[in-house]
Amino acid sequence: MKITGARVIVCCPGRNFVTLKLETDQGLTGLGDASLNGRELAVASYLNDHVVPLLVGRDATRIEDTWQYLYRGAYWRRGPVTMSAIAAVDTALWDLKAKAAGMPLYQLLGGASRERVLVYAHANGRDIAETVDEVQRQAALGYRAIRAQSGVPGLNKVYGVATDGKHYEPATRGLPREEDWDTPRYLRHVPQLFDAVRSAIGWEHELLHDVHHRLTPIEAARLGKDLEPYRLFWMEDATPAENPEAFRLVRRHTTTPLAVGEIFNTVWDCKALIEEQLIDFIRTTVVHAGGLTHLRRIADLAALYQVRTGSHGATDLSPVCMGAALHFDLWVPNFGIQEHMPHNEATDAVFPHAYRFDAGFMHPGEAPGHGVEIDEALAAKYPYQRAYLPVNRLQRDGTLWDW
Ligand code: KDG
Ligand code: MG
Asked: What pLDDT score does 169 carry?
């Protein structure tokens, strides 16, 4: 099966998505997600200008060789733009191979290790009361694991909290929005949030929280300790992870499980964290970590140390990524959980898919391939719109902080 064409489709059905479509001489097509929030066109250019010319004429069945060709063969390695582009090719090739075999992708990976995939929902509110209501609403929808985020008194805009009462979506049209931050206010507030949530919902549901890289290691250690009574499933991105040694300090002080990795691109970003058992969940996902070929490698390393997967699944990852991730989740032996933020209706219409939600779990479906397609005519009705993620500044003096 030879690749005869490769096209990059950029569309914005509410938010920007970059999709790679491969065509073959057997008439089969394969799709890969290449979306990188706020830097979408850089990946589109990387693909169009540098990768597509290498693909036409290649044997579509040689997934591993193509991965190595694009990774080693570029000389310049790693980074989110490169690895998202490689991921798109890799995902499209797995899709093609599974379609050619007439199988759902999870069968090619080794078959199902479980019946269904546990997912966690997002609950957020402007204050604790609103968040508690939203947690209860998500529980009523059937979710068994729920991430809780709330506005912090005295701060205008906080990560993970919608200001309009709708779904939280961080990227905004035009130039980046500025948010403000104050660590002491946040550290005082979060234990109160989980105290209220546990009082309202009891102990049957898994609860999660995303710190979104805002704390220093000792502050993260303090928060982990303060949250221990509420038995979180995980505390995510407690401190920036460029320096893995920072997690030694956090780990030394708390038994709250730690999750990290949604901005990692390769196994090298998580090697020390996994080998030193400094984390409990690795959050790398298909699109930003080099596709299924590389994600498998990360998961296998993690399995040696009882680290489980918990793939990123925000709405800025397209349904193509979600479909591929669910096949991976159904197979991967050391599965932990999968993030699930439902896409808007327009996105679901542009990307018809076989995956489904039922009572707190998802399943990728039985369609051959990863089960996600693109309606190109509809996608063309939603052209690219410039959008950025916010930036964050300390409320006290305007210093730029981690968002
Ligand atoms: O583009 C950035 C988002 O994907 C990120 O902010 C979402 O942290 C996130 C999460 O855990 O879903
Ligand atoms: Mg996160």
From this structure: 84
